[in-house]
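Onboarding guide, step 5: your first structure request.
Type a short instruction followed by the sequence, for example:

Predict the 3D structure of this protein.
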Amino acid sequence: MLFFTLKHIKQTNKRTLLAFIFFALLINISCGKRKPPLPPIEKVIQRVEISGFQRGDKVLILWTMASRNPSTGSLLNINQADIYRLAESIKSKTSISEEEFASRSTLIATLPISDADFGRKQLTFTDTLNFAGQPVRLRYAVRFVNASGQKAAFSNFFLIEPTAGVANIPRDTNLEVSQNAVLLNWKPPDKNIDGSVPPNILGYNIYRIDEKNNLKMLNNLPVSKTEFADKFFEFEKTYTYFIRTVSLGTDSEPVESSDSNIITIIPKDTFAPISPSSITIAASPNIISIFFAVNPENDVAGYKVYRSSDPTKPKSEWALLTPELLLKNTFQDTNVESGKKYFYYLTAIDKFGNISEISEVVSETVP
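The system replies with structure tokens like these:
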């Protein structure tokens, strides 16, 4: 604080005194505690984490977009994603600065970012490779740009040494449907993606997409043969199949080829069950009992029992004793007469209406 004596006041004119007091107050106020400056409002997300892998003659770069700005709840102000690539010798140092990368790398693609991309599980960029005949290391990075043209920091660097000797896709993939499996077969590729031979084949991976667009690899380890049976399917459902060749890549890591030709199918069950078998028959007063083995098919809906007292009569004219499908493997015929002989045969029906051939004919006389 400043203090003034009466003598000083008397010796100073009023205008000068007021100016002096105002100046002193400004100095006094400025001596108080200042608040820290507020950080600038972030216009564009700073960076993203990327990963990637090789598939055939392509490198796939992957990253996950943030959902929403945690402070405002609004979508982040990002307009595009710039993809950069630097081709370098495999003997060069693996660690470089962002400044060096920025000066040496090439902008290879610009991807528009829309509101719908935020919160998506994953975004992907695919870079097609051109092999120059010598080993190379590729370094990728992504950075975002907002609608005002402001650029964010680079992502992490993803480094990869692509393998030129990756086998091409399987050839002539086709399939057929049996009662118990969708059977796929194909021909092996005849060369690698860079034209070299013999093809670098470790095996094959088989993929299936179901009606809910779920992608699943059906094998646990690469299949060595050029055929595969998908036994875990359902008739009347839509499936899409494709196959990738697996090669041995850099550092002995497996590398897949691109997708084979893609086949979509709705398996139809046109396969009749086998005829009921192991039929036994027993007669007692007023009852004839029939027993038989349960059919092995999983889709059998039930059985039908036919009877005749004349074995020479055409089978199509025999009486149907089960207008409603028989759901168990036993049957009792109580509408019989003592001393009379009866002949029987059975058929099995699946849930798609396919009917088996008739079973063997069995007979018994009522005591």
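Each response can be followed by summary notes, for example: The two ends are 131 Å apart (CA to CA).
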